[in-house]
Design a protein that fits this description.
Chain A contains 6 helices and no strands. Chain A is mostly helical. In chain A, helix 1 packs antiparallel against helix 5, helix 2 packs antiparallel against helix 4 and helix 2 packs antiparallel against helix 6. The longest helix of chain A is centred in the last third of the chain and has 34 residues. By secondary structure, chain B is mostly helical. Chain B has one domain. Helix content of chain B is about 70%, strand content about 0%. Classes of the chains: A mainly alpha, B mainly alpha.
Chain lengths: ~170, ~60
């Protein structure tokens, strides 16, 4: 709950803003191009183009000396939505484009809330897994990250394929 | 798994990745085409992508 509620709320707000703009068709075409470009880059293991996004990470000052509840709230509010912190996978940018291409204001809010809840739940599930298993060695962590990057690229390509056909229906 | 000595392991991996990439694009296209252009497919893919992204972010070094 500490992750899912802020995640869904922040993404629903993003859906409200994006859905109010007349950019659904442009966002869908951009999603198709973005998915193809970043999907190929991630599957092939190319360093360029790097995933767009911020490089910021939660400073330790926010957590040192904080109570368990405050710590949970800080992590949930920042990591649940995922907008503020570093994300090495290009699929995060695709989520913004898919929210913008929902087609109507109501749909954008609903899709945004679903995306936020799903992202936050995935993040919380990973946290629970990390707390139950020993921390990976840095090199093993890097290897695992590279495998996830390739998988992320394949998922991006599937979304790009879906966006291409949807754009064909909308614009055809 | 064994493969001919003339074929390197990275080449085999690259071939599998290229096939997986092609299959992914086709699967996405087929899903929307079979649903007659339903935007629900994109919403479902977005939810799956979001959950995967959140889970995988734990592995970012």
């Amino acid at each position: 709950m500490a992750y899912s509620v802020p995640g869904a709320a922040a993404w629903a707000l993003a859906g409200l803003i994006l859905g109010a703009l007349p950019i659904a068709h442009a966002a869908l075409v951009t999603a198709a191009l973005y998915g193809c470009a970043y999907g190929v880059a991630e599957v092939c293991g190319l360093r360029w183009p790097a995933a767009p996004g911020r490089r910021w990470q939660v400073p330790q000052d926010l957590l040192i000396g904080a109570s368990g509840t405050r710590r949970l709230l800080v992590w949930g509010a920042i990591l649940g939505p995922g907008f503020l912190t570093r994300n090495p996978y290009a699929s995060f940018g695709m989520l913004v484009l898919l929210t913008a291409s929902a087609g109507s204001l109501r749909a954008a809010i609903v899709v945004g809330a679903i995306i936020g809840a799903a992202h936050a739940s995935g993040r919380a599930a990973a946290l629970l897994r990390d707390s139950a298993t020993p921390q990976l060695e840095p090199f093993a962590l890097l290897l695992r990250s590279l495998r996830w990057r390739a998988f992320d690229g394949i998922a991006l390509l599937a979304v790009a394929g879906a966006a291409i056909v949807t754009a064909g229906y909308w614009l055809g | 798994m064994r493969w001919p000595a003339s074929v390197s392991r990275p080449a085999v991996t690259a071939s599998w990745l290229a096939l997986a990439a092609l299959a992914a694009v086709s699967a996405g296209m087929a899903a929307v085409w079979l649903s007659a252009g339903s935007t629900g497919v994109l919403a479902g893919l977005a939810a799956a992508l979001a959950a995967g992204n959140g889970y995988a972010k734990a592995y970012s070094p």
